């Protein structure tokens, strides 16, 4: 029995990178959600170039790379194209990918939630996957810093520096995906176990029975999840497996640029990421806008139901094709074209969801 236990331990260590940073699982109960928040925070302590901010966010630290008293990496990010894409593009997407996690991981970090063992083990796996992709990005940051330091008195825009910078940009693809996987599982736990009836069908009650507070009390969490959804949708259509990293590191085209799609994405995020008074629901109940808010609530329910029902097929489509390449491939197979349409339809629902949230916020702000 002792030999068998030792063998199992060795196999676990071989198969699960970074497993030692997480709290031990019970032999029978599986992963304990009470460890979730602390395990997430432990990740930041593993990498010299990653910090945990005072508000619980992960933040890459470039100030550790110095030469003759100068923070050369930070200076390049602040003033030199294409290094500024690290902060202005990739890290913006990374931060928004974790919008929901930052806000709700503490709430879900309790054994009081009666979450099935397979879901608890899935979020443990998501944490390990996320940690692994973070390690790759962290390593690539150090490799870029190394080659910059070597060329600091010559040219930090030469081909060797740009090759390493491209590798760093490309490594964000897996980081984005693992962040979204973690977000999806956490949102499943939050909306289906921490909350009661989080997607209520408001069409089942009439206007007089409708209580706006039942929605406004949960609207912030829906907005944070929508920011993650908007980010995933943008990455899937315009970043993953594409040519952005090549254009961003191509001196012949002045290191490329972001386009209107990115600007639109940022505008959508900033428009819905709003704070509002917790008592706003009561104000809506006694306002002339109650009818409009009621109708918007029904729309939001319908869109949320579609998103819930289609997630698995959308996720499969994203796993099976690189959207950017498929839509530009005249020889794409029928199945690949179907996957592309699934991704496009999902994006349409995401856009509609954003518009409903905007409508709700407009009503709330104009009371």
What's this model, at a glance?
By secondary structure, this protein is mainly alpha-helical. It has 14 helices and two strands; from the N terminus they run H-H-E-E-H-H-H-H-H-H-H-H-H-H-H-H. Strand 1 (50-52) and strand 2 (58-60) form a beta hairpin.
Keywords:
367 residues, two-stranded antiparallel ribbon, 66% helix, 14 helices, mainly alpha
Number of strands: 2
Give the termini distance in whole angstroms: 69 Å
Q: Helicity, in percent?
A: 55-70%
What would you call the structural class? mainly alpha
Shape category: globular
Low-confidence stretches: 1-21, 23-28
Strand line-up of the largest beta sheet? 1-2
Largest sheet: 2 strands, antiparallel
Count of helix runs: 14
Kindly report the average pLDDT value. Answer: 92
What radius of gyration results from the CA coordinates? 23 Å
Estimate the strand proportion. Answer: under 5%
SSE string, helices as H and strands as E = HHEEHHHHHHHHHHHH
């Amino acid at each position: 029995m002792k030999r068998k236990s030792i063998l199992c331990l060795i196999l676990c260590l071989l198969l699960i990178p970074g497993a030692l940073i997480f709290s031990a699982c019970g032999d029978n109960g599986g992963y304990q959600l009470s460890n979730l928040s602390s395990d997430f925070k432990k990740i930041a302590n593993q990498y010299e170039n990653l910090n945990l901010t005072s508000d619980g966010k992960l933040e890459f630290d470039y100030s550790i790379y110095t030469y003759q008293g100068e923070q050369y990496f930070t200076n390049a990010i602040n003033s030199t194209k294409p290094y500024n894409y690290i902060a202005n593009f990739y890290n913006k997407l990374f931060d928004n990918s974790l919008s929901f996690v930052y806000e709700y991981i503490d709430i879900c970090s309790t054994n009081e939630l009666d979450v099935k063992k397979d879901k608890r083990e899935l979020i443990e796996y998501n944490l390990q996957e996320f940690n692994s992709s973070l390690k790759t990005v962290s390593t690539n940051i150090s490799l870029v810093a190394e080659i910059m330091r070597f060329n600091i008195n010559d040219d930090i825009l030469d081909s060797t520096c740009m090759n390493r910078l491209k590798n760093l940009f490309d490594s964000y693809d897996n980081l984005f995906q693992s962040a979204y996987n973690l977000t999806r599982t956490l949102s499943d736990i939050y909306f289906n176990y921490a909350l009661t009836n989080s997607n209520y069908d408001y069409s089942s009650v009439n206007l007089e029975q409708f209580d706006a507070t039942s929605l406004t009390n949960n609207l912030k969490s829906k907005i944070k999840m929508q920011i993650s959804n908007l980010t995933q949708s943008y990455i899937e259509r315009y970043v993953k497996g594409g040519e952005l990293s090549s254009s961003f590191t191509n001196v012949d085209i002045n290191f490329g640029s972001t386009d209107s799609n990115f600007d639109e994405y940022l505008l959508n995020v900033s428009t819905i990421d709003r704070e509002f008074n917790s008592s706003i629901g009561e104000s809506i109940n006694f306002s002339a806008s109650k009818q409009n808010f009621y109708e918007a609530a029904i729309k939001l329910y319908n869109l949320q139901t579609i998103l819930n029902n289609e997630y698995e097929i959308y996720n499969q489509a994203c796993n099976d094709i690189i959207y950017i390449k498929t839509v530009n491939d005249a020889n794409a197979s029928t199945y690949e074209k179907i996957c592309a349409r699934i991704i496009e339809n999902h994006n349409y629902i995401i856009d509609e969801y954003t518009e409903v949230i905007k409508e709700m916020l407009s009503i709330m702000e104009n009371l």
